[in-house]
């Protein structure tokens, strides 16, 4: 038998081409089916993952927005404290974030959704039976398609459980599959269209193909096979210009479109992954503490900020127990209880606890916590985000403590004080200001609009404290003056209460208050009633220009008036100056005592004034020396007045009533004419020369020195004293006498004052009142002061138990070499500085306050002490007293010697003592010469005393049992 006969058509080219075309068609169909199936599968996977991610993202956002547990309350479902039924705001926000549908079910019923139909939200409808069974009954998550009113949705369903684990609803997030189905359908129809087009092309050209079609067809088949394997990246390149090439181009377009669609799908998945990554990255790098704990309290995640703050490394804490590492030992039991409550869902959402760093330091953290649950609602762990509030808490505590401390200090300040804030409302009003104004704290705290000015001025207006905030010139004019030191303002004001003379004086101080950033947050003003001080100061100012015993001008006022007379003399109006000395006055003091001498001086002044014109100035220079300044007077008139005065005293017998004695005295008078060629020092020098000439000439006489005469030739006594002083410096003829300064209360010696004495060439002592003015006039005092300092220092070395005060003259206050010598001697000789003190007169200190203050502060830094001598007879002012940093105030003897019989002097002494005590200084009373004076000083609580009653000056220091 022969072989079966094969039809000829089988061998035809058309048949072969047809076979080839059939293979191609089958390949195309296979490619379309495989590609379509692959697209469907990828779309399903992407849709499911997208739904899962959006469900978790929406859940996190919902927890952050409404922290707390799910619960059914009064028939409605709650998240934390917020009802979810009809809460479309949060649903729409989550929908906007996820880009899809969002629904909350109470049970199986929709109670809040962003899905609408015909403009209405489809609340009240139920979930499908299948979803209800899987999610509500089985309690597991469900991912799949769902038909919602005829629309397909790819969704994710998660059971919602309350704190007891009961499933009370469903949390749903999804998106419409319409777009995916449309995409797949449009792709499928594109493929079908391409397939139909290809088929039509094949059918139309089937008979036109030749053997030359074999290669491009094979290439096309290969491309189709690649597409069948899912290779959408390899470009289809068939290089023919015929129909096969066109077909290949169509395949390439289809491949390109499929590749683009697949790329878009892949990018969507990448964006989703990035979103999740950003959330994790946010927790890692946020500037707050972030930690996730499992249900056993072990650390499963912590961010860099927590590690940096605590000093631990990640590998040291991960999977370790949080309480063991981060909670201080004394807080661990409490922390364990708190963690248990949090896991059970009963702990506080926001709480502040301490953590302990690796180095052992403690930090205070304010925590926000959220429970992490699985699909069944079981607690898997806790996520906590915290803020380090340590510095803020400490700052607040310090601020509260400082504020309360300030209020306590202000409340008990002795000065009337109030505080305002930056809004100028009163925030503090102490007891002293309540007593001063009669306004209670409860009636003014919190008030503004210048309420604090009304109790003082009777009206609402700016006062000193307001100048802290604004430089108001009108307010400044309300005060006598306003001074500023750094940020503090000082002012003095007078508030009349009944005429110009009646009223009160206030000393005011205002300072700004700052916060920790240096910003002004308020101001404080203190008010001190200085009315009594001002009145005493006026009295002291009077005493500064007048002699306290005789009530006539003193040397200072004479010198000031002399300057005015000299100015007139330069315009041609001459005058005259008389220097007067009481002959043998010392005899009265020595025989009858200082009280008799004082009474005699008062009587002499009365006698002299009776023989002078009202325009003539009679002044006391000190001791028994006086001066008369005559204005518009010729030489003849001056000599006439001088002779008249001399005769009136010479011919009078002055009776001392209190001492039942009558005394005959005489005057020695020196006269000088004041013309335009002289200065004040020259006039005083010539008058002094004339006086010494009168005394050297036998006393009880008048001597005149012409203005042009060289006074040094005639100053025999002065020259004698100068020679004696210089010789004494060379031959060491000075001596130190020591007079004790005694405690008034305890009768114990505080220290001794070193008093200088001079021996003349005959060995007789010369009174300091005689040679010191001459030494000052001729520039010898610095040498004398140096001698005194040298020998005083040696005395301190020789007698270690001795405390000594040294007098420093005004001219030596500017001697830098003497100051350095004192400092060096104290340091090199090993003398305890507190054993050494210095006395300067008030007059010398006030003449150059800066220089005096410089001297005092420099030696006080070493530990030396200072006393202000003769207080009350010079330029006395409590203002100066505040500026001079002296330790002791020595009240001048003119106030002390007769205070047991003069109430005015008692008042002045008491005022000086009170002010000194207020300024932290001790008082020393001079010229204490009897028991009555000492008793008065004890009544006034004066600290220390010095005088003949307590001890006379002696060549060596005396003990208390040696004192009179």
Automatic annotation (TrEMBL):
Lineage: Bacteria, Bacillati, Bacillota, Clostridia, Eubacteriales
GO molecular-function terms, A-Z: ATP binding; kinase activity
ATP-binding keyword on record: yes
PAC domain ranges (all copies): 349-401, 488-542
GO annotation, biological process: phosphorelay signal transduction system
Annotated protein name in UniProt: EAL domain-containing protein
Primary residence: membrane
Organism: Desulforamulus aquiferis
NCBIfam families registered for this protein in UniProt: GGDEF, sensory_box
Domain (EAL) ranges: 718-964
PAS domain span: 275-346, 402-447
Domain HAMP: 211-263
Domain of life: Bacteria
């Amino acid at each position: 038998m022969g072989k079966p006969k094969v039809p000829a058509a089988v061998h035809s080219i058309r048949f072969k081409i047809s076979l080839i075309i059939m293979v191609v068609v089958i390949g195309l169909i296979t490619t379309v089916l495989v590609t379509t199936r692959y697209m469907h599968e990828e779309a399903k996977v992407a849709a499911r993952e997208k739904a899962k991610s959006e469900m978790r993202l929406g859940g996190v956002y919902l927890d952050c927005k409404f922290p707390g547990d799910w619960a059914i309350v009064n028939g409605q479902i709650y998240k934390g404290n917020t009802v979810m039924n009809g809460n479309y705001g949060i649903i729409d926000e989550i929908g906007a974030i996820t880009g899809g549908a969002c629904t909350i079910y109470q049970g199986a019923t929709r109670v809040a959704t962003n899905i609408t139909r015909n403009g209405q939200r489809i609340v009240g409808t139920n979930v499908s039976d299948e979803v209800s069974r899987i999610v509500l009954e089985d309690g597991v998550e469900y991912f799949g398609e769902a038909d919602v009113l005829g629309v397909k949705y790819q969704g994710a369903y998660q059971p919602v459980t309350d704190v007891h684990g009961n499933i009370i609803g469903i949390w749903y997030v999804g998106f419409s599959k319409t777009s995916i189905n449309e995409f797949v359908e449009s792709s499928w129809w594109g493929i079908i269209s391409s397939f139909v087009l290809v088929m039509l092309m094949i059918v139309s050209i089937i008979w036109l193909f030749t053997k030359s079609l074999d290669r491009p067809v094979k290439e096309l088949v290969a491309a189709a096979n690649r597409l069948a394997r899912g290779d959408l990246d390899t470009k289809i390149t068939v290089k023919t210009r015929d129909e096969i090439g066109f077909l290949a181009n169509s395949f390439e377009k289809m491949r390109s479109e499929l590749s683009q669609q697949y790329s878009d799908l892949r990018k969507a998945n990448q964006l989703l992954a990035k979103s999740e990554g950003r959330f994790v990255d946010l927790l890692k790098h946020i500037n707050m503490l972030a930690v996730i704990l499992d249900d056993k309290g072990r650390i499963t995640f912590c961010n860099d900020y927590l590690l940096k703050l605590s000093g631990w490394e990640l590998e040291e804490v991960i999977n370790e127990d949080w309480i063991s590492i981060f909670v201080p030992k004394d807080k661990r039991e409490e922390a364990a209880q708190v963690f248990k409550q949090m896991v059970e869902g009963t702990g506080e959402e926001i709480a502040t606890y301490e953590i302990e760093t690796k180095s052992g330091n403690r930090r205070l953290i304010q925590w926000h916590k959220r429970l992490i649950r699985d699909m069944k609602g079981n607690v898997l762990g806790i996520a906590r985000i915290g803020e380090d509030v340590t510095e803020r808490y400490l700052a607040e505590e310090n601020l509260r403590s400082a504020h309360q401390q300030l209020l306590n200090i202000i409340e008990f300040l002795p000065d009337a004080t109030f505080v305002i804030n930056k809004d100028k409302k009163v925030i503090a009003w102490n007891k002293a200001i309540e007593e001063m104004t009669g306004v209670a704290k409860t009636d003014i705290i919190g008030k503004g609009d210048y309420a604090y000015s009304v109790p003082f001025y009777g009206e609402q207006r700016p006062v000193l404290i307001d100048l802290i905030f604004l430089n108001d010139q009108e307010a400044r004019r309300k005060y006598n003056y306003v001074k500023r030191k750094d940020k503090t303002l000082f002012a003095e004001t007078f508030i009349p209460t009944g005429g110009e003379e009646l009223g009160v004086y206030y000393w005011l101080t205002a300072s700004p208050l700052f916060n920790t950033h240096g910003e002004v947050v308020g101001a404080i003003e203190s008010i001190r009633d200085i009315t009594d001080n001002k009145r005493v100061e006026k009295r002291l100012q009077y005493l500064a220009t007048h002699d306290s015993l005789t009530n006539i001008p003193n040397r200072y006022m004479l010198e000031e008036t002399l300057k005015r007379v000299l100015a007139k003399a330069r315009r041609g109006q001459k005058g005259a100056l008389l220097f007067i000395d009481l002959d043998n006055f010392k005899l009265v003091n020595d025989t009858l005592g200082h009280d008799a001498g004082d009474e005699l001086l008062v009587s002499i002044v009365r006698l002299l004034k009776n023989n002078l014109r009202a325009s003539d100035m009679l002044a006391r220079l000190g001791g028994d020396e006086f001066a008369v300044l005559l204005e518009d007077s010729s030489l003849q008139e001056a000599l006439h007045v001088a002779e008249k005065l001399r005769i009136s005293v010479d011919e009078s017998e002055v009776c001392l009533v209190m001492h039942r004695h009558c005394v005959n005295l005489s005057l020695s008078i020196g006269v000088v004419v004041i013309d335009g060629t002289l200065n004040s020092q020259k006039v005083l020098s010539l008058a002094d020369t004339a006086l010494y000439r009168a005394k050297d000439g036998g006393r009880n006489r008048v001597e005149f020195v012409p203005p042009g005469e060289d006074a040094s030739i005639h100053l025999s006594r002065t020259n004698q004293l100068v020679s004696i002083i210089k010789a004494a410096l060379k031959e060491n003829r000075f001596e130190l006498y020591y007079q004790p300064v005694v405690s008034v209360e305890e009768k114990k010696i505080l220290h001794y004052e070193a008093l200088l004495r001079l021996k003349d060439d005959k060995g007789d002592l010369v009174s300091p009142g005689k040679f010191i003015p001459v030494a000052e006039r001729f520039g010898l005092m610095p040498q004398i002061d140096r001698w005194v300092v040298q020998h005083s220092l040696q005395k301190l070395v020789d007698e270690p138990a001795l405390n000594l005060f040294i007098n420093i003259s005004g001219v030596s206050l500017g001697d830098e070499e003497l100051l350095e010598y004192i400092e060096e001697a104290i340091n090199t000789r090993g003398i305890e500085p507190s054993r050494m003190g210095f006395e300067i007169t008030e007059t010398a200190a006030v003449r150059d306050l800066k220089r005096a203050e410089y001297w005092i502060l420099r030696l006080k830094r070493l530990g030396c002490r200072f006393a202000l001598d003769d207080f009350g007879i010079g330029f006395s002012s409590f203002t100066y007293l505040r500026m001079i940093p002296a330790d002791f105030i020595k009240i001048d003897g003119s106030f002390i010697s007769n205070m047991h019989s003069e109430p005015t002097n008692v008042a002045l002494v008491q005022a000086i003592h009170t002010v000194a005590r207020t300024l932290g200084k001790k008082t020393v009373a001079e010229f204490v010469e009897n028991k009555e004076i000492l008793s008065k000083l004890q009544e006034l609580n004066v600290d220390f005393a010095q005088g003949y009653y307590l001890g006379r000056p002696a060549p060596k220091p005396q003990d208390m049992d040696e004192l009179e």
